[in-house]
Amino acid sequence: MQWWCSAQGVPWSWQWRPYPGVWLFMLAVVALYLIILRREEAARAAPAFHAVGSRSGPHPRWRPVAGWVGLALSWLALDWPLGTLGAGYLSSVHSVQFLLLTFIAPPLLLLGLGPRALAVPGRARRSPVAGILAAALLFNVVVIATHMPRVVDRLMPTQAGAFAIDAAWLTAGLIFWRPVLLTGRPFHPLARIGYIFWGTLAHTGIGVYFLLSDFPVYRVFELAPPIPGLDPASDQQLAGGIMELVGMLIIFGAVSLVALQWMQRENELERENRERLAAGQERRGE
Fold it and tell me: Using CA atoms, how far apart are residues 133 and 186, in angstroms rounded to an integer?
């Protein structure tokens, strides 16, 4: 019985393979997610909810949907067939897994939790810049370490090693995207935009390296049982293209959303200032 997707060296077939370890892991994640959601609902119903520094207002209906979509995408990235193909057959699918577990699923999961879970903790408010820099640094370290040939070639053939890489991606993604979505004393939008660009430098460099490399980088994919229509060198270039194109679309999409929210906030402040000015003029006229 194989519990987690890993490089096994057997010819690829589209016959479904069960991975109980993936199911148990996702069930544990769903259970933890439900516990946090229930605590969020209880906290929103409590009178002290506004004292934690979170934004007030009703909980948008799209937030729970975003969270469940994030869970579904996480499962898709880990289970058959993506999990199997990305673990030991195609570097391009491995890149798709990386993007799903670090760039797409984590922000959706965080959005689904709601504002209280994203509020800045009291201790973190004392040194927010240090926390942001640490999150970006950790993310870059994880991205670089999990893409080093020695690490990938040694860990992917073992179930524990493949699980370690997948879990590191998902954890690092949650840590990285949390500062972007923080509520309560939010960071300046320009700082968020700079954080997104700086925090994804390693990902961009790895994608370029895949595109420009003349030979396959990973032995585990170079020596994998061949899949008709795609040789290892072309597969690696495809992986680099996916990393660059899809990754940059996600990055610029996130930056655009931050800029849009910034503009909306500035418009709201300008309207509030006009209303206050008009109210003051009316009082003076009376």
Answer: 15
Q: Dihedral of the CA atoms 215, 219, 220, 226 (nearest 10)?
A: 50
In tens, the pLDDT along 43-61 reads 766 654 443 334 445 567 7
Q: What is the DSSP letter of 223?
A: S
- Residue where the block lists tokens 């897994």: 97
DSSP string, 159-207: HHHHHHHHHHHHHHHHHHHHHHH-BSSPPPHHHHHHHHHHHTHHHHHHH
Look up the pTM and report it: 0.88
**What CA–CA distance (Å, rounded) separates 73 from 104?**
8
Predicted confidence (pLDDT) per residue in 207-252, tens digit: 999 999 989 999 999 999 999 889 999 999 999 999 999 999 999 9
Could you give the CA distance from residue 56 to residue 280 in angstroms, rounded to a whole number? 27
Taking only Cα atoms into account, the Rg of the chain, rounded to an integer number of angstroms, comes to 22
12 C-beta neighbours (distance < 10 Å), count: 16
Burial of 274: CB neighbours in 10 Å, binned 0-12, 13-18, 19+:
exposed
CA atoms within 13 A on the CB side of 231: 5
